[in-house]
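To whoever picks this up:

The nightly regression suite flagged Imidazolonepropionase as changed. Nothing in the input moved, so I suspect the structure step. Input below, exactly as stored in the fixture:
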Amino acid sequence: MKPSFPAAKLLFISLVACSAYADETQLTDNTPRLTALTHAKLMLSPGKQLDNATLLIENNRIKQVISNNEIPQNAYKIDLNGYTIYPGFIDPFAEYGLEYSESQATIEGPVYRINPKGAVAANGAIHAEKEWFSYVLADKDAASNWISNGFTSVQSAHLNGIFRGIGVSLSLADKNSNQLIYSPQSRHFMAFDKGNSPQDYPNSLMGSIALIRQTLSDANWYNQNKMKAAGRADLLSPEFNIALERLHDIKTRGAIFDTRNLNNQLRAAKLLSQEDIQPILLGNGQEYARVRELQEYRPVLILPLNFPAAPQVSDEDNAREVPLRTLRHWERAPSNPAVMAANNIPFSFTQYGMDSKAFWPRLRMALQAGLDEETALAALTTEAAAAAGIDNLVGKLAPGYMADLVIAKGNLFQDGEIVSVWLQGEEQKQLAPEYQWQGSYRLHLAELELDLELQLTQQTPRKLRGNLSSGDQQIALAHLKADSKRLSFSVNLQGAGINGISRLTLWQDD
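Regenerated output under the current build:
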């Protein structure tokens, strides 16, 4: 038989927060020009931190790092005592925020030549003329996949063809395109895959390599002769080709090469090195197997954390079918970043090709497999910013850098949690409402003054638990529900002179 209770009383009461973070971080559109994040641990750059310090933000940039917490009187203050501020993370290999579509005509039979629109390359796999900043458009839903993990900017290009055009590095903020772009022309993008080109050539890896070599040779000849002919009536300038013209700076700008397996990665490294182009290579997770060969080309790697799932060996029949190389790769894959670090091969991380929800669990697997925290932070910040060509704007907490920040409770590389992400000086909270209500509060209820304690359980999924207390008496809360503005719960206040079960609803003021 279920016990019966008197009708629950619905009480609306004001909430006086003792938790500074819960009360002071509700930024609005009227935020003053100066914002001071005080008493925080600042991870200025990999290997360099400052405890109990203030980060002063003016508009969308970092104005000053203050070690003594003496801040301007006109600054809006947010007390982050107990929190850590990291530079915003950068993903240097993405296909994000590009409003671009291609019409693919149905063509029958072998196609040896095409009639392209515009003065571009004769081969349909060459799109070197594309400058992807022209197609930038914020995508709030897609951006959330990065922002939830602490990423604040990406390097983006349309991933189609062998020469894929010049990438753009941009913020993940939900703003107009002019405000998003950090570098309109970052790196050239390349691959061996011809993409959706209707032409038969190239139809093999050998053909792709030959086309790359010929195109780079043509671009070198084209740009040299164009310079020679400039201002001289006795020399004919080469016929205009925008694809070849865009490749004039590939040796100084650098190229990011999309490689899907270890053999092609080494081929790309050798090819780019022979052309005097710094190899920046998308990783495949198996670099540990041929690290000595990779070292010869001094590449920069962009590593996806695409660790394989555990092989199915639940019974003897399944176990016999699993090749030894599969077991070895499953065991060694999490140590791949640590092996690269031990061999002085610089790298950054990307979410490309994986579920964004798996990013932090897999990064922590890499840390457990030997990767140190300083190198991991560099892979998310300084190394990633360099690969994206924006290391003068992001990747550090320093004056003049963009106010792209990650605020965390605890150490992110152990068991810490992202509380909020700042994009160009504007905050986006990331924790579920339950997390925002943690802390100590004082409730004024009629003539009663009660202390409210709210905490999260340690077991996952983490749930909000709490109690009301007055003196030595504690009363557990039941049926807790929370959203970003409201908390409700049931409590038996009979010991405080209120009969029956009371249902309390608390509203948090802005």
